[in-house]
Design goal:
It is a single chain. By secondary structure, the protein is mainly alpha-helical. The chain is built from 14 helices and 8 strands. Strand 1 (about 1-5) and strand 2 form a beta hairpin. The protein starts with a strand and ends with a helix.
Length: about 450
């Protein structure tokens, strides 16, 4: 607090300085001095509980940004009877929130998701390794092979241990009632003390590991025993998927939707259905649930010959539309090379060798059509655009398949049948004359 020559005071911006807020009222005593009265403070004034930031504090917050200096609003709180002739207004800068200025993020780099979110920590991309010489490549290959071999031995050892415990649990706990089965610790001790599980041959170890792998596969693909277990499986699995999608949204900014008993979408992606199709999302969910209930098919019915044929036909046509960009294109199996490959420069790669390349509607066995369906789903069978060199090689190998086009010019006009006959007769006449002369 700083006193002026008139006996009044000016605020210095200290945290205990009530003068900067305009709360003090000065009175003159009989001797001519100033007496500061606390009775004149309006304790219900909200500005009493607000401490404006100092110049240094605002400059630290808004680095490299300057704002015009405005008069301290606390001056309005001064009483009209106060002697303010010597008052020195404090130097204050208004809050940037109260000022309209363009957001610097709008003009910042937005080429990547990280640049558009500068306040977020960034997962650093892996720096590509430097170019290596042949000797360095060979040395790294040796180290990589050694590491892979060590990892494989460790994995096989852990896998074998788990396989032996699984076999022992199946042996000891199969006939035991719930609550009296052996624990994992007890099963480990049994395996360690079992002489029959020591000194196993390579084939015996492979048999134990194969049994464990089959058991794990069955746990993934077997059906649930009752509706409650099925519903809980659906709930827990979709919760994991939802968490993965939400985390993916933060990392990459992607929009995603998942349709389950209730809709879930990242950010405002659920608004897409109503904004584009002008139908509430609840109507889509209701229609989807009605459709799913009317299917009423078990796994065998879903994978029937006709059902899988339909799936394969749709996947092939959709892939052809995606790779060519033509919506009205159709698949031609009987004239595939000319109507599809040569016309659109695309090719279906990875068709199973054991299945004849024909229309899926003509594939007669369920095993073959399911094999083709699985290959299309796994994208081992897929559409790909041919390069210019590949297209030229196919054209050169196959030769010209089209008849030469004749122009409408008289010189290149294709001769009629009558003209060809006359030309043939005229070409034979000189030969006969030559023969007569020769004789």
């Amino acid at each position: 607090m700083t006193w002026t020559s008139a006996g009044d005071f000016a605020a210095t911006g200290g945290p205990d300085d009530l003068g900067s807020l305009g709360f003090y009222h000065t009175e003159r005593n009989a001797s001519g001095g100033n007496v500061h009265s606390f009775d004149s403070i309006d304790w219900e004034d909200l500005s009493l509980y607000t401490m404006p930031l100092s110049v240094e504090e605002l400059q630290a917050i808004n680095a490299d940004t300057t704002f015009p200096q405005l008069r301290d609003p606390s001056m309005a709180n001064l009483s009209s009877t106060s002697d303010t002739s010597g008052y020195v207004p404090p130097s204050r800068i208004p809050s940037p929130i109260e000022n309209t200025r363009p957001d610097p993020l709008r003009d910042a780099n937005s080429s990547t998701w990280a640049a558009r979110n500068p306040t977020r920590s960034v997962i650093r991309a892996r720096t590509p390794p430097p170019r290596l010489s042949d000797a360095q490549k060979a040395s790294r290959k040796v180290k990589r092979d050694q590491k892979m071999e060590t990892t494989k031995r460790l994995h096989d050892a852990v896998q074998l241990t788990n396989a032996l415990i699984h076999a022992k649990a199946k042996e000891m706990n199969t006939d035991q009632p719930v609550g009296s089965r052996y624990t994992l610790v007890e099963l480990r001790e049994m395996v360690a003390n079992d002489p029959q599980m020591k000194g196993l041959t390579k084939d015996e170890k492979a048999g134990y590991i194969a049994a464990l792998s089959e058991h794990r596969e069955q746990n993934v693909t077997n059906v649930r025993g009752n509706n409650m277990a099925a519903a809980r499986d659906v709930l827990l699995t979709t919760e994991r998927v939802v968490k993965e999608l939400d985390d993916l949204r933060v990392r990459t900014g992607t929009y995603a939707n998942i349709c389950r008993p209730s809709m879930h979408g990242t950010d405002n992606s659920e608004d897409f259905w109503e904004d584009v199709y002008d139908i509430p999302m609840a109507d889509y969910l209701r229609q989807y649930e009605q459709w799913a209930c009317t299917q009423n098919q078990n796994l065998n019915e879903r994978d029937s010959l006709e059902a899988v044929r339909k799936q394969v036909r749709k996947m092939i046509v959709r892939g052809l539309i995606a790779v060519t960009g033509k919506k009205n294109i159709t698949m031609n199996y009987s004239n595939y090379e000319t109507a599809v490959v040569e016309t659109y420069a695309v090719q279906l790669i990875g068709w199973p060798a054991s299945i004849k390349f024909i229309n899926p509607s003509n594939i007669g066995t369920v095993g073959d059509i399911r094999k083709l369906r699985d290959a299309l789903k796994a994208r081992t069978c897929y559409w790909a655009a041919l390069t210019r060199n590949a297209t030229q090689e196919r054209s050169d190998a196959g030769g010209s398949r089209k008849r030469k086009a004749y122009s409408h010019n008289r010189e290149n006009k294709r001769p009629s049948k009558k003209a060809r006959k006359m030309a043939a007769s005229s070409s034979e006449a000189p030969k006969e004359e030559d023969d007569f002369e020769a004789k």
